[in-house]
Amino acid sequence: MTEILKVQGLRKAFGGVVVANGIDFSLSKGAMHCLIGPNGAGKSSFFRLLLGEHAPDAGTITFDGSDITGLRSFQRIRRGISVKFQVPGIFKALSVRQNLEVAFQDHLHGHSLSATIREMLDFTDLRAEEMTPAGILSHGQQQWLEIAMAVGVEPKLLLLDEPTAGMSPDETRKTGEMLHELNGRGITILAVEHDMAFVEQIAKRVTVLHFGSIFAEGTITEIIDHPGVQEIYLGTADV
Amino acid sequence: MTLNTTDTVPRSRARRLFSRLEGPQTMGSGPAFWTVAALVLGVAAAYPLIADAWTVGNAAYFLIWTFMAMGLGVVWGYAGALSFGQTAFFGLAGYAYGVITINLGTAYGLTIVALLLSVAIGGLFALVIGYFMFYGRIQGVFIGIVTLSVTLVLETFMAQTAGPQWRIGEARLNGFNGMSGMPPLTLPWFGGDIVLYPGPPLYYLLLGLVVICYLGLRILLNSPFGNVLVAIRENPHRVGMLGYDVRLYQMLAFGIGGAFAALSGALYTAWGQYITPSSMGLTSAALPIVWVAVGGRRDITATLIGTLVVLAGFQTLTIYGSQYALVVMGALLLVTVLAAPQGLIVGAMTLLGRLFQRSKT
Q: Name one GO molecular function term (chain B) (predicted).
């Protein structure tokens, strides 16, 4: 399958702390991939490097056939990367509709803008809250609103940083269903997640990061059964 | 068919443009709002018929400052960047108007050209300062510090230009005493130029400009550009992660705010035929912040009304209370920040809106 993302020799250190230690990673088009690992493994830093919020000390990032290592964040987003943060990155004083308008208006206009907003309101079950200030939505609804903002213009790659943080089990399940639908539309998804039940629900393949390096990679079953992963992250039943 | 198509496109564009007079970024909509607005405009237009020329000239003076206030509203209230130095662009444009008109004279409508050039100079200077600030990653309170420094540096610089070597063509900068003797705005007209000394003709020109700028800003702020500005105020990081160049938008907003301050500066110089370095000093820099904060920085209508009310109050206090007027202004700012951070006019309009809704239901 064609690669949409290829990371080679990515390295980043803050003083003596190495957050990415020569990471080689690739993602196929249409993949639904999870990134797991203990706290401090470098998952969020890896995302920030992909998004251009940190400049790497070494290595290259190739997205959809182009080297994006030197691009600024907004330029990477314009190439087709989209992101949803752990803490909902919405505009709390604006209505749900305004949030979606700001997210889509650079790409869509007039009727197509209205149609996409309607579609996203239905997709996230937020039709009734269209004119509600986003700040008073429930935590789960805020998370869905941000997902809608991130996917309305159909990005090629969606990065999700703990998309279910703070969600109830029902909301988590529903979020998983949403991601499957988005993946079915052809959006490649890379998610950082701690909730292993959610990882099992969505991921086709999983990568484990540890001390800024790739520790293991495989299917969800392979990762769960991996003794090293159990030791550093998942734990074992007899402990 | 072709004619119909080409006819429809501009008409629908114009309709879309005017539809942005109302929107989520500006308070006030519907027939009731526009009827009240038309009534207020009617009263303002009739004012010179009942007031003497000096009072009308004084009212024109109030109108002059509203441009700087609306510009600060865009930069601070909408884009979230508190500029403490709008007076830098005000003063620069004021001096530019003086230098240009003293050298070029008043024939052929050249004072209007000078006005436009002064606004362009002030706006461009704001873009340059904005470029270094926003592309230099200066944020938050540091924007206030940098802009205040810029206006104080300009004030200090202009105050030491007393010597005869400080001249541009025929125009002496005149140091601490400031420039004077520049001509007022002059409109070329059949049978003789109309000289706009403070009085009804200048008042009507300014009133027209206020209406145009106010409506233009309503359209701009309810456009996609305005949406992005408000989003930047709320969460700049997220806006960047939606693919917008946040710094570019901030710089443009700052340039617009600077151009509006420059318009005030050039008009002020034309109105009083003088400009001094103190127009860029600390007190002058602080007052626009009081006007905008007290009225309500996040709504352009509140900014406009608040500025006029506070200016009128400030002048009355200055007449009757001398230097205590500034202390009262400071107290007013404190009360606003503590009791109605969204602004007194916005608070009153919100209350009125709720009462109106309740009476309807």
A: branched-chain amino acid transmembrane transporter activity
